[in-house]
Fold this sequence. Notes:
Blueprint (H helix, E strand, L loop, with lengths): L2 E4 L5 H9 L3 E4 L5 H8 L4 E4 L7 H5 L6 E4 L9 H6 L3 E4 L5 H17 L1 H9 L17 E5 L3 H12 L3 E5 L5 H7 L2 E2 L2 H7 L2 E4 L13 H5 L5 E5 L8 H10 L2 E6 L18 E3 L8 H21 L15 H25 L4 E10 L6 H13 L11 H7 L3 E6 L8 E9 L3 E9 L3 E7 L2 E6 L3 E8 L4 H11 L4 E8 L5 E8 L5 H8 L4 E8 L1
Parallel strand pairs: 1-2, 1-3, 3-4, 4-5, 6-7, 6-9, 7-8, 9-10, 10-11, 11-12, 13-14
Antiparallel strand pairs: 13-15, 15-16, 16-17, 17-18, 19-21, 19-22, 20-21
Pfam families: 2-Hacid_dh (PF00389), 2-Hacid_dh_C (PF02826), ACT (PF01842), PGDH_inter (PF19304)
Pathway: Amino-acid biosynthesis; L-serine biosynthesis; L-serine from 3-phospho-D-glycerate: step 1/3
Family: Belongs to the D-isomer specific 2-hydroxyacid dehydrogenase family.
Amino acid sequence: MPKVLISDKLSPAAIEIFKQRGIEVTTKPGLTPAELRAIIGEFDGLAIRSATKVTRELLDVARNLKVIGRAGIGVDNVDVKSATARGVVVMNTPYGNAITTAEHAIGMMFALARQLPEASVSTKAGKWEKNRFMGVELTNKTLGLIGAGNIGSIVAERALGLKMRVIAYDPYLTETRATALGVEKIELDALLARADFITLHTPLTEQTRNILSREALAKTKKGVRIVNCARGGLVDEAALYEALRSGHVAGAALDVFETEPATDNRLFALENVVCTPHLGAATNEAQENVALQVAEQISDFLLTGAVTNAVNMASVSAEDAPRLKPYMELCQLLGGFAGQLTEARQGVIRQVGIEYEGAAAHLNHRPLSAALFAGLLAPVMEGVNMVNAPVFARDHGIELSETVHDRDSEYQTLIRVSVTTDDQTRTVSGTLFGGSKPRLVEVKGIKVEADFGRHMLYVTNQDKPGFIAKCSAILADEGINIATFHLGRSAPAGDAVCLISIDEPLPEAALIAIRHLPQVMQATQLSF
Ligand SMILES: NC(=O)C1=CN([C@@H]2O[C@H](COP(=O)(O)OP(=O)(O)OC[C@H]3O[C@@H](n4cnc5c(N)ncnc54)[C@H](O)[C@@H]3O)[C@@H](O)[C@H]2O)C=CC1
Ligand SMILES: O=C(O)C(=O)COP(=O)(O)O
């Protein structure tokens, strides 16, 4: 039974889902990093929000971890690169809290415009300071969005309803989408110069860190009000403090901070600053949404291999997962076959080609190529799987080409793999018998028909009498039982391939004896 740890405060709805799906779930919010490191080793899945920091050190000791599910959007608290390198899938729930967070940003804008928090404190203190709290209207003001993705778009829609003009800076926003949203797409400097209110809705990345830097703040319109419900680190807090003190920035509403939990921050001392403790996603509705989603996604992955909303690998829908499974297995085996031959020849892989025919032509190919790479790179990469293999391949400059043949295939399905090294190209093809049993059907263009055995011997030889008897005699002398023996040849007396499935590994001396047989060109031991 897979085990999942919930290490942040999640709606109990998540626990129910895990239990219903037959997953053993442990809830331990608020652990210190050391406490978390001490127990993480026993878990297959980890469900988090923003408080848990998934660092490289934590991943180093997470021996069994296969999936991290973020009940929310931002994954900047996860070292995704290290997770990927260790083959751990990282998922988020990209829509579940978007409306709630957009509403918080709109609420923060009103709070700033009318100084609602300060006015409330003053009124409750019995001061009735009617003249102190003079506000500004939102109507006809220009709202500058930095980031117009899910949350930014909802904020834009709400702001247009409030009769604001909305301008947006987002390099990935298309003109068509901007028009559909009713916003004007502009460059950052133009936005800074024109906006009465600025609201941030980008992830925290190396590109967005400090996007509202000291220089950027200096370019804003005097009297601008800034809302940040995205991430601390997008705004330079020291520069913002000075701009607020000088009055250049009239107010700031901050839900997120450079250091969280933010219990001590100089911005707290300023009257024109409104703060909330990272409450953007904190509504019953949003928390229920993200908890349910993350529990479903983690369960699906652990139980069926379905991949939804992963930030570091291709998606496989719950419907597709069982259908793709035998094809992924076939691809991994074909990759393993080609990879072991390449490794035996110490070749450096430059290019990988995959051709799909028949039923395989109509599938989602990204998981299939990921499975192929996982098999192919297993001899050279420890802990390889479908998550880290494609990244390793890309980082090592291995080119991938995929061809889909829309023609009748001799087989119900056919996947042909070619692996090119500096000195040669190896091809191997496979099919699924009965829709689920992987079979090799072609090696080096020579037809064969062989199962993938646990231990195998692959021999290329000249098709001349005597080879089978001699090869079998060597195996018999070693007391090794032959499970299956498959032969194929290009033409009578031409090049031949031989695939022998054996019950146990062959000692090195026997392998050398086979290599020394007169007809043999190459003999390699394989394991699957
Ligand atoms: N305060 C809170 O509790 C919450 C905060 N968030 C934060 O809000 C962020 C945005 O969430 P979504 O809108 O759902 O994400 P999203 O991925 O739908 O949108 C992000 C947008 O930022 C844009 N972007 C990326 N790089 C940019 C750059 N250099 N300059 C300008 N725009 C850039 C992208 O093109 C995209 O359109 C999350 O990454 C998360 O950090 C999300 C939920 C709750
Ligand atoms: O979803 C996000 O990105 C958030 O920032 C929400 O954070 P939280 O889950 O409330 O700690």
